[in-house]
Each structure stands twice: as C-alpha cells, then as structure tokens.
Amino acid sequence: LLVDFINKLDDCNKRLKEAVKISLKNYDKRPKALKYTYKKVIYNIEYRKIIYIEKEQDNKRCIIKTIEGDYFIPGNLTTVNKLLDERFIKCCRSIIINLEQVERYNKKTNVITFKNKIELNAVSRDKKKEIINYVRGLS
Description:
Blueprint: H1 12-27, E1 33-38, E2 41-46, E3 50-55, E4 61-66, E5 69-74, H2 77-81, E6 88-92, E7 95-98, E8 102-106, E9 111-114, E10 119-120, H3 125-136
Antiparallel strand pairs: 1-2, 3-4, 3-7, 4-5, 6-7, 8-9, 9-10
C-alpha cells in the first residue's frame, strides 16, 4: 500500500503532496528498458539484462548481448549509446558495456569478466581507470 488515508482535517494539502511524492518515487522504480523497432518488430529489453552491445563489422547494425540471448538493433554505437543510461560506457570503439554486469576486471590481461562468465578483451587505455574504479566500488 503506497498511500494511507488522508484526513482532510489534518493539513490535507501537505499530506496529499507527501503521498504523491511517495507514489512517484515508487513509480520510477520499475525497470528501465531499451525500446526500439527492427524489421517491423518492437523490442523492449530491460537495461539490467543487457551485458554488452557490439558494433557488427561491415554492417549498419549492432548486436545486443543479453542474459537471455542476442538481439539486433539498427544504427551505429553512437546512436545506440544515446538510448542508454549512465550504467553503460563505451569501453572501446566497437563495444558498449553494462557496468552492472561486470564481475571482475583483470588489469594485467585487460579482460573483463561478466556475471555470466563471458569474457571480453576490448578495453581502451582511456577507459581502464573508469572500469577499475567501478569494479572496486569507487563509482
């Protein structure tokens, strides 16, 4: 139950504003998703399920790797990146990763290991520090 009874004799305007604030706060907790259309099919993929997005070579689409399988999205990485939120970073020219899916990062071998044990060796020098800080819990 989000909102309790509001007594109109007990500063009802203040109580109503508080109730609306609580409702909106909980409304925003629903999972955010990547929504797009590809080949006349509408997709709605939750951000938390996306592992990484990779630019398909010699093609004008990207591959979305999720915990449930692979999907295709039209456009380049710059276009796709605009549809994503702050949990995603472009770790090199051809890959965007979901930081929430990163389990560990080996600085020596430059390998990211995701929670589902997929490994990726594609971190540019300027993004290493950001990934290290995230894995350490500093960001």
